[in-house]
Design brief:
- The structure is a single chain.
- The chain is mostly helical and about 270 residues long.
- The chain has one domain.
- About 70% of the residues lie in helices and about 5% in strands.
- The protein contains eleven helices and four strands; from the N terminus they run αααβαββαβαααααα.
- The strands form two sheets. A two-stranded antiparallel ribbon has the order 1-4. Strands 2-3 form a two-stranded antiparallel ribbon.
- Strand 2 and strand 3 form a beta hairpin.
- It is globular, with a radius of gyration of 19 Å.
- The mean pLDDT is about 90.
Length: about 270
């Protein structure tokens, strides 16, 4: 029949914003971990506003705002500061990096990861990172994990999260053996809301990960290894620094390989 109505299709780009909002709601209800609602809203508003301006300026059209929302809400949750300006500045650095730091049209860093590392380094006296564990209350973590696994799997990125988690736990065992700390103490950080954002959003960002499945999995194993080394050296913000170091290197290697393949194709033509 020619008059059949087309079925409504859900835009998968909204799945990640739904998940990150759930992390916010569950974490806030359970522990009240936000510095303040106002600062979080400022981070989101700044990210969206800068995305709109730069997207229109660089591409000539208005961009989809799911990525900016995720960056803004992540910054609102992960940044801890008694001041207001770091939230807006961190969002500005994060979103601007998407348009200003590119190689062959590709992003190198996850935007919120770059912004947070920049703030931790440049404004260390004012800015810290979220470091709250779920404690003995397993229900919030299980809830986030179940929904997160379903959503990230629907986006085809769950293998990245799973590989990182397995690697983190394996290296936690190594750290426990080296330091003499209980294994549960070394593994505990992954139960925190910071890590839920990290494993579901930062390391899985489609725009800032290599393209192949094997490459993605190898990259997060290396991220976990570098993080473990940084933790042994007492770096407080080891996960942020590990991704900041490894992520762009992996992308640059892939970009270099792509250039080589293109050059070979031109030479063979």
């Amino acid at each position: 029949m020619s008059g059949a109505r087309p079925r409504l299709q859900f835009d998968k780009r909204y799945l990640a914003p739904i998940l990150v909002t759930m992390v916010l709601v569950v974490g806030q209800i359970t522990f009240g971990f936000l510095e303040s609602w106002g600062k979080t809203m400022l981070a989101i508003a700044a990210a969206i506003a800068i995305e709109l301006v730069l997207g229109k300026l660089f591409t000539g059209k208005l961009p989809h705002l799911a990525s900016a929302y995720i960056s803004g809400i992540s910054i609102g949750m992960l940044v801890r500061s008694p001041e207001i300006w770091p939230y807006a500045l961190c969002s500005a650095i994060s979103i601007s990096s998407k348009y200003l730091i590119r190689v062959d049209g590709r992003h190198l860093w996850n935007p919120s990861n770059l912004g947070i590392v920049a703030m931790l380094v440049l404004a260390a006296d004012t800015v810290a990172g979220l470091s709250v564990q779920w404690g003995n209350t397993l229900l919030p973590m299980v809830t986030v994990w179940l929904f997160g696994a379903v959503i990230i799997n629907a986006l085809g990125r769950f293998h990245i999260t799973l590989t990182y988690v397995v690697s983190f736990l394996a290296f936690a065992a190594v750290r426990a053996a080296v330091t003499g700390h209980p294994l549960i103490a070394e593994a505990a950080p992954i139960t925190g809301p910071m890590y839920q954002l990290y494993i579901f959003f930062m390391i899985t960002d489609p725009k800032t990960t290599v393209r192949t499945k094997q490459g993605q999995m190898l990259t997060v194993v290396v991220v976990a290894a570098v993080e473990a080394a940084l933790r042994l050296m007492q770096f407080v913000h080891a996960p942020y620094y590990a991704l900041f170091i490894v992520g762009p290197i992996a992308n640059l290697i892939e970009i270099a390989n792509d250039r080589k393949k293109r050059a070979q194709a031109v030479a063979a033509a």
